[in-house]
Amino acid sequence: MNTTVITQEDGLEKIKEHSAKIGEPSWVLDQRLSAARAMPSYGEPVFKYGIDIFLPVDEFDFSTIVPTNSLQDRFCVEKEGYTLLDFWSAFERYPGLMREHLPFPIEDKFLALHGALWNKGTLLYLKKGSNVLLPIYYDSFVEYTNQFDTLLVVAEEGASAVIVNKVAGGSPNPVFRSGVVRIVAKEGAQLTFVGLQQLSGGTVNFSNHSCQIGKDASVVFVDALIGSNYSKSDTSHHLLGEGARTHHIGIFLGDGKQRFNISSAAFHHKPFTTSEIYGKGALYGKAKSLYRGLVRIEKNAENSNGYQKEETLLLGDNTEASAIPNLEIHNNNVRCSHGASTTHVDQEKLFYLASRGIAEKDALSLLVNGFFTSIISKIGVEEISSELQQIMEEKIAHAT
Amino acid sequence: MSLEIKDLHVSVDGELILKGISLSVEKGKVYALMGPNGSGKSTLANVLMGNPKYKIESGSIFLDGKDITKLKPHERARLGLFLSFQYPNEISGVTISNFLRTALNSKSDKKIAVLEFHKILKEKMGLLKMDKSFMTRYLNDGFSGGEKKRTEILQMSILEPNYAILDETDSGLDVDALKVVSEGINQLLGPTLGVIIITHYQKILNYIKPDKIFILMDGKIVASGEKDIINDLEEKGYDWIKEEASAS
Questions:
Q1: In this structure, is residue B105 part of a structural domain?
Q2: What is the number of structural domains in chain B?
Q3: Is the pTM of this model over 0.80?
Q4: Cross-chain Cβ contact A370/B49 below 8 Å
Q5: Which of A21, A333, B54, B165 supports an S-S bond with A302, CB 3.0-4.6 Å?
Q6: Can you give the residue ranges of every domain in chain A?
Q7: What is the average pLDDT across A219-224?
Q8: ipTM of the predicted assembly exceeds 0.90
């Protein structure tokens, strides 16, 4: 991965020029520069896990990732209970809040790159006690150039909302997209976040999601990966207050030569916290997936529950899937379980459906759609479940 | 108009199970195919429907004059053949309503409207004394034995086949369930439907009267007759037929 172009003096100058042109506060520029300077200290990404698992990023040349001048327009949507606005507007309106949450912790080279180059940023601010009844839709549209977009959701005490973030666009030619989502659910907040990635075929997508969940707050996080050529999607749930709950729903559906590299982790920092991580995926053609799950229970997090289950359905002869569920438990007084499996379509079930006049391809689609029904219904918001189901039915009907 | 089975030899995993079966099933008639466990009854049911697990070594199947020996299961179904499974599969995530509408639509070019379909489905479910909550339940998922068999007959009533093979539809049913299922089948009988009832026991034949009875043993039809043969069976068991068959 060639990132020297960014960390060299002319790269840093470009970032400075760019930042000055936008007119962002100096502390934002300082964060960009320190992220850029930190990049060489992170190892090269290897896309290799354990001994046998390797997910190649075949067709993408990372040296093409450079600072871009494309920039989102300023906007501010004010609705009952919440405000949705771009970062630069937010620096003026909520300077304290923005300084509290930026920069996001940098864990690897891609997050450092993101910290240096982000060119789209959106804040969703949910006011204390607000109960937003209709889902809040926010689309992340990826242009034909490299894009680094950030979405920060801050839910004040007792706020509740359903947020749908569709990630679409991109290009049939190689385009890099880096997306960072950070969710802060304060005491008693209840959030359902649905991330729906439908990027076009050439896009290489790196997304990093993190949820900070406070006392008695609960989060349902949906990470649905349908599109893109290579999709790396990492989600971490931090249960930071007693009674915090999280429910992770990971879905992936791939065909052709799609690659998925997914991780979902729950970190139990406090007692009486609960995490449930579900993952379901189906692969057609030559698609490959790697799924890593982790439940980590800290020493003082007694009386916590952690559960994770992952299931992948292999539909093509050349598909491959690996799943690595992990538990790290540092307290004896907890309940945890995990499981992962890879399955194939049951030929007897296909015969049963075919015996009613349903052609094999349609019978297979019925079975695959049925396979996803249980996890989609866990989202708990009927209109969003049925929308996602429709999107998946469409892809399943044409998967090759 | 008939379903003709001609000298059918069938193997499973390399073992010959059916050793020359010939049968003619006419529309408007009910046939019973009886035999002890392992005689090949379910193999015949599966091979007629085209289960790819079963290999036809020789022989042929004709449906209303058309050779269907090499057709795929869905093609046979579209020509009007139906199999009520001995052990229906559980299909999670697919509702009975969605499944049956897909099946019905795939049988003809004319697509049925959702509301019209629901009306028909509710009516048929009523005849089988099924609660309408079954419409939105996943196909056979968590169903009792009786519910599964009732659902098989529901499918048959919706798809209106010309020839139906009922593979041990009576097995696993208590007396009340057997009565409901039998009544459901009786309602479907008529001049446009030929039925083969495959059964190990005689009980279902108290409710559905067959025109002809065949006895299958060791992959061959060893006896045939009318209702007298049932009485003999009841009295003397299958061993009697075995002796009769080997004596002749």
A1: no
A2: 1
A3: yes
A4: no
A5: A333
A6: 45-345
A7: 98
A8: yes
B100 is a domain residue: no
Closest chain B residue to A374, measured at CA: B93
Query: C-alpha angle with apex A389: A387 to A391, nearest 5 degrees?
Result: 70
In three-state form (DSSP H/G/I as H, E/B as E, the rest C), the secondary structure along A250-261 is EEEEECCCCEEE
Question: Is B88 an 8 Å CB contact of chain A?
Answer: yes
Q: Please name which of A182, A252, A393, A5 lies closest in space to residue B98, comparing C-alpha atoms.
A: A393
CB spacing of B77 vs A355 below 8 angstroms: yes
At A390, give phi and psi (nearest 5°).
-65, -45
The percentage of residues in chain A with a pLDDT greater than 90, rounded to a whole number, is 72
- pLDDT of B47 over the 70 cut: yes
Q: Which residue in the set B51, B52, B155 is minimally distant from A356, CB to CB?
A: B155
Nearest CB to B73: which of A355, A372, A373?
A355
In sequence order, what are the residues at sequence separation of 6 or more whose Cβ sits closer than 8 angstroms to the Cβ of residue B144? none
Residue B138 lies in a domain: no
**In terms of residue numbers, what domain contains B72?**
2-92+163-247
Say which of B74, B94, B138 has its CB closest to residue A357: B74
Å from B49 to nearest chain A CA? 7
State pLDDT tens for residues B184-216: 999 999 999 999 999 987 788 889 999 999 999
B51–A351 C-beta distance less than 8 A: yes
- Cβ of A358 within 8 Å of Cβ of B82? The answer is no
Q: Is the pLDDT of residue B60 over 80?
A: yes
Average pLDDT, chain A: 91
What is the CATH classification number for the domain harbouring B31? 3.40.50.300
Two tokens at B32?
């019973």
- Cα within 13 Å of Cα(A218), Cβ side: 9
